[in-house]
Amino acid sequence: MSMRKQSFPYEGIFQTGYYITLLGTAAILLWIGIFKFTPTEAAAIKPLVVHHPLFGRVYNLFDLQTVSNVIGLVEISTAFLLLLSIKFHSLRRYAGAGIIVIFLVTLSFLFFTPGMWKIKDGVVVTDFFILKDIAFLGFGMMLFGFRRKDRKQ
Question: Which domain of life is it from (predicted)?
Answer without folding.
Answer: Bacteria
